[in-house]
Amino acid sequence: MAEFLMPKLGTDMQEGILVEWLKKPGDAVHRGDLIAEVETDKGTIQVECFTSGVLEQILVPEGSTVPVGTVLAIIKEEGAPPEAIRQPVVAAPAAGQTAAAKPLEAPPLAPTVKPSTVGQRALMSPAARKRARELGVDPESIHGTGRGGAISLEDVEKAAAAKAAVSTAPPATTTASVSEPAARMARIRQAIAAAMSRSKREIPHYYLSTSIDMHSALSWLAEKNAALPVPDRILYATLLIKAVALALRETPELNALWDGQQGVIAKDIHIGVAVSLRQGGLIAPAIHHVDRLSLEELMVKLRDLVQRTRTGALRASEMTDPTFTVTNLGEQGVESVYGIINPPQVAIVGFGSIVQRPWIVDGQIVPRPIITATLAADHRVSDGHRGGLFLRALDRWLQEPAKL
Amino acid sequence: MTTMTYREAIRQGLREALHDDPRVFLMGEDVGRYGGAFACSRGLLEEFGPERIRDTPLSEDAFMGLGIGAALGGMRPIVEVMTVNFSLLSLDQVVNNAAILRHMSGGQFSVPLVVRMTTGGGRRVASQHSNSFEGWYAHIPGITVVAPATVHDARFMLQSALKEPDPVFIFEHIMLLPEQGAVDESLGPVDLRRAVVRRPGKEVTLITHGGSLGKCLTAARTLAEQGIEAEVIDLRCLRPLDMATILESVAKTHRAVIVDEAWRSGSHAAEISARIMEEGFYSLDAPVARVCSAEVPIPYAPQMEDAALPQPTDIVRTVQEMISSHG
User: What confidence tens digit (pLDDT) does each residue in A198-208 have?
Assistant: First the structure.
């Protein structure tokens, strides 16, 4: 038996709304299948499962708001014997009522031993685990501040105090409704506010900027696009993202995640692409393994990602695992973008628009399309020297577009 | 209350024992005419005569055996081995006779032997003279292993050791010998079985013995300036371990650092760490940490020896890393 839990889709996420079940009881599910849609502060996310088997029982009906870590459904693993049916944790909303979920009176305690198939268990000290059990705090809902993000005794006590404070406060109205766009917007704004304040509070940013001649890249792209049918044509942003990924291979300390103690270099290069939402706000979901994609594949993924971001159909993994962010405000006509690092990432690069400028080539002043790339990086993890090498590598890749 | 050196405290303890009990005698290399390799027995030959202050040849195996025989014969021998490094020559007598004769004789014989020796590094006397093997002795069932870390304990541990019916090994840290400290005659005998909290604290427990106690107290003062109150436990007895005192402290602080001049692998520090895990797992808010000597022969060069041995800065850093938290 495996439990399908309300995932934690961001450091600050406390609860989520189960919007829709994409599978029903009795359906076969495979590891990686999308089985539910969850609404969080950052939008609607489609959640994958990590177990193959049969969706045996749904415990949380659509429209319910439940804390992170709540068991949403039971999946019977292949070959496992059936288990006693569990009591649903939330009563289904009465017929005719809108999907306004009642806050849970007491979140169910996570079982002491979780099947290892449901992701990795949170790092937690023995004393903290014991105390959490005594206080009835779900470990999955606690933000760890110890070494390597481990949950300490103090974290448990703080979480319990916060929980007590919330339960005595009047019920919040904004979290109850699934369909109210204004409330959703307010929550996206709140999430951005929390992440950006934390970033500027904790991360000592340094900024480096360089102007890159895009003549070679754009000429090469124009030639390549001429041979492609219109819908398949490649935007120059694709070149920028690919060049960033290849430059990161050469300066891996910028492709890292801060673990509370130090920057840990990420194995893979997952580039978060900042996508503005029509209603305002922005999300930076990840395109995975950008350094291994061809420009054509990257273009397809970029188009798909932007579209899904704007329609609110992102996957959980895309939300949680970018290792570096690219923000491009070229369309807005700005010259340069000084980004704010999205924690736990340790760097972001911003591109302005391409403008024609007088440029000196072989002693002659000629008009050239110039783009300004600005790196913001975490000085705890890297120094200006490495940042400079990154920008130089980025420039070099953009001078040799055929190699991208 | 009087003040004296650790060395003087040992000498007074010896003098008192020789004075109070005619069965007591001191035996070892250079303890008589030379006054002891570290001058702990200076003047005793003159005071008590060659019958009771006996110089031995350089033959640790032989005179350890003599001590065991004398104890079996009803005497109360105090055997001084110059340093723990040379005591390895007599380890067979310890392991295969002293520690097991009570068991082998079905309880008919006991070996009321007291063995004293110096231990530890820091004296710039190179690798073969700077080891800390008291943890090896603490591996052996059938003996008691103690380490006086204060002048007071150096003065009174011998008295308690001589009351034990089975062998007691006293490890005197070489760097403590010239240290000055207070001796309080009114405190009564030292309880060999109980560890002592030398400094109360609430954020972390430093567990140590012998020559590392002072380093822990120095580190604790530095930590206190940073708002971290460290509790410092002086084990006093390495075998048997007073786990009650350790566990009571860890239940309060939730964090433990063991500071031991021996090497880390397979060490007494490892034993304490394991016991905390076995008996106090649910008290822990962080993995138990150890500050031990670098796993190299203890170097001769001063700066290298200092770098190899645990220092207060190492203790401070270990505690800081354990406690620092990040949002």
Answer: 899 999 999 99
